[in-house]
Amino acid sequence: MMSRMSFTFVQVDPQDHALLSQVGDITKRAYVDGGHLAVDDDYATHLADAAGRARDGELWAAVEDRTVLGSVAFGPPGSPLAEVAGPDEAEFRMLSVDAAARGRGVGSALVRQCIARARAHHLRAIVLSTQPTMRDAHRIYERLGFARTPERDWKPVPSVTLKTYRLDL
Known about the structure:
Shape: globular
Low-confidence stretches: none
Oligomer: single chain
């Protein structure tokens, strides 16, 4: 498996327009092409705003030869990205992997990077919200030890219910 993982992690700078453009495009395409969001949904614009994520928290990209394979936004306590996290918890959001890079361990590696960042912040847990249709992502979370927290499930808008997961550190 390690031979398939030739990428490195980069914390994307809010001024790195080349990487931000790739991250925004990949994130939006992952949600739209995956059937989780309509192309004209207002949230699609939010997904394309990688610069906002880089400013509001830590934006991590898996990169191979300056090509983004996937990304995730990490929100430590106090970050606007931490929507469901408690005071001693981190949160990650908008995990996405380019369709051409799937099956290489990119998604799992990005989640592990968020776990490492939460541990570096000496937090007690890391949480996330996910759409019920994102079954591939759910398998990653469960394989890495995350547990469902249905008591935290929530609706950002009336037509969308998000499932939540938590990992104790």
